[in-house]
Amino acid sequence: MNRTRSTKTASNSPSTYNGGVTIKSPQELEAMAKAGAIVGSALTLLKCSVEPGMTTRDLDNIAYKEITRCGAKPTFKGYRGFPASICASVNEEIVHGIPGKRILREGDIIKMDVGATIDGFIGDAAVSVGVGEVTQAATDLMDATRISLEEGIKAAQPGNRIGDIGAAVQTYAEAHGYGVVREFVGHGVGRFLHEDPQVPNYGQAGKGQLLRLGMCIAIEPMLNIGDWHTRILDDHWTVVTEDGSLSAHFEHTIAITEDGPKILTVHS
Ligand code: MG
């Protein structure tokens, strides 16, 4: 799940929960890894479950069962009043779609975003999946979004800066002609779903918060076939592309380690 971009700084933002960036201890990193593994397990199950004819609520139920089977809580359920365990966003819906009666049809693309809390720590990750056969344009969009996430993760080396991540994502995405969503961004993650720093999918290399050992961040590019502008539907949650074009979203929670970025939410 994304953080709404704020222009306020960490020091003066009333929405800052923790007073700044948190550095996790080795024990806390173990808990983060446990939470991340549960998210990965739920996403693995969701990816192979998607088929035409099912509803987005069916997917929500699958995720709820898997997360609770692992002894964790679905982080999103009740977060600021969000009513479900996952976000399920279809086609021009970018993020924060509410699972419900919508039936998936052949050719749709669905984005599934999962959060799990265990031992007080949170994992957060998302994938985009085609429903049955999808168009080449949809496949290309999903591939580019997944690769832009990989580029962003590669840039998340200790000693680099937040801007290096955004620049890597933006450079790849725009070179392939896609719009990079700006109003929603990645974020620090730990005891809270949205911690500092914000992790935009655009920016300047060498700028912004220093990436330090023990930081955990969720990197989550959202790419549109069209323009980057968004709007929010009347349900006050679902974010859609303003121009109605297809959008894709991939996300991983990673830890900054001596060996480089470590993905905590691996799925297969
Ligand atoms: Mg997130």
Can you tag this structure with a few keywords?
alpha+beta; six-stranded antiparallel sheet; Creatine Amidinohydrolase; globular; 26% strand; 4 helices; 16 strands; 26% helix; 268 residues; binds magnesium ion; four-stranded antiparallel sheet
Model description:
53% of the residues are buried. The protein has a single domain (15-261), classed as Creatine Amidinohydrolase, CATH 3.90.230.10. It has helices at residues 26-49, 56-69, 136-154, 162-175; strands at residues 3-4, 73-74, 86-90, 93-95, 109-118, 121-130, 179-180, 184-188, 195-199, 216-219, 222-224, 230-232, 239-241, 247-249, 252-257, 260-263. The strands form 4 sheets. Strands 1, 8, 9, 10, 15 and 16 form a 6-stranded antiparallel beta sheet that branches. Helix 3 packs antiparallel against helix 4 (162-175). A hairpin with a 6-residue loop joins strand 12 (230-232) and strand 13. It is built from 4 helices and 16 strands. It is α+β, with helices and mostly antiparallel strands.
